[in-house]
Amino acid sequence: MPDNPNPKRPHKLEDHLHGRDYDHSHDADEEVDHDHDHYETDGRLEDNALWIQDHVSLLSVGIDIGSSGTQVIFSRINLRRMGEELSSRYFVVSRETLFQSPVSLTPYRSEELIDDAELGAIIDRAFADAGLHPDNIDTGVVILTGEALRRENAEAIASVLAEQRGEFVCATAGHHMESMLAAFGSGAARVSHDSGKRILNVDIGGGTTKLALVERGKVIATAAVHVGGRLLVIDEARRIVRLDPAGRHLAAQAGFRWSRGDVADAASMERVAEWMAEAILASVSERSFPAEVQSLFLTEPLPGLDGIDGVMFSGGVAEYVYQRETREFGDMGL
Questions:
Q1: Rounded distance, CA 302 to CA 221, Å?
Q2: Which of these, 37, 110, 161, 264, has the minimum number of CB atoms within 10 Å of its CB?
Q3: May I ask the CATH class of domain 51-172?
Q4: For 24-47, how does the pLDDT look when each residue is reduced to its tens digit (9 = 90+)?
């Protein structure tokens, strides 16, 4: 048989310069000086090892133990590594709320102690309702705020919760941090950013009132006042069952010398609530404070309150300000 007059030339690596003819295979009898690795192109991107390394998804829990309320929120946080900048830093690209528990009243055993058993039960119910176990949690935080932080066993309880309900951080929020968190959580920072306006956020909680001045989306000043809606609590018979020192002081400013066990009628409670409301208004509208208002500041007052374009309210009392809540809880929140 005569030789092939047009023999097929050997196939070499240089045939693929600049990416030419990259997607091909070699015949069994073909003379070549290289091999090809063929990757499956129809698989899920999320299954690719490089993609997995650059993208991290974490299951997070946030436990907020406040003066009056306790709430648990579970979230899915997605992070991406800044690989294109040759960095090992990850940043959050999205967050999804998986479950948000209803707000429960923070349980107290006495004026000095949080009821640790009841608090643990509240948090365990949140895990059960979310269909999650502490072993599922990748990260999270326990934050104590306001009057809850002042209880003798507060930090010890938070540390135990952080250890037993997942591996996460235990933190105590100071007055300035609380004010800043409230400004972001209420949406005041977003409103200020989107509108370019100067917004004052007034967060009235169970133990304290947090103030934040927001300009173009940035919190530029914060302050706190010792006025809150749950510093005094009565039972069904209108007997005082909880009276924090600050609550006793505020009642005295309104003309009442109350102690635990005393009866507080509706008209008297109304007078105390009015005095507290006037004190909050004075803290954000006057520059020369009366001595009784000045003594309520837990921080320095807010500077530069001129030119405020709008006021937003947050915290438990804000639910009544915006008429989203009508129930009574035996406190000064109304």
A1: 6
A2: 37
A3: alpha beta
A4: 666 666 666 666 655 555 566 555
